[in-house]
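Quick one: structure tokens for this chain, please?
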Amino acid sequence: MAPKLSNADEIRAALRQEPAKPLRVEDDETNKVYLIVDEHALPTLWEDYVRREVQRGLDQLDRGEGTEWDVDAFLADVH
């Protein structure tokens, strides 16, 4: 369960336990969940995500799961 936004001490303790990972924090009034990320770690997390997704796409292509992309049809749909 994510720490509540109303409990700053619990959030600090959770951040100290795993400082390199994003921390899920729940707003006890709205039940929305937010992520707290060290600002210096954010670019690396984003790059890791992009690399994973690109590799996933390449793996799908290697397995023959890709399809031809009709750029003109795509652009016509967008406009």
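Residues 42-67 form one domain.
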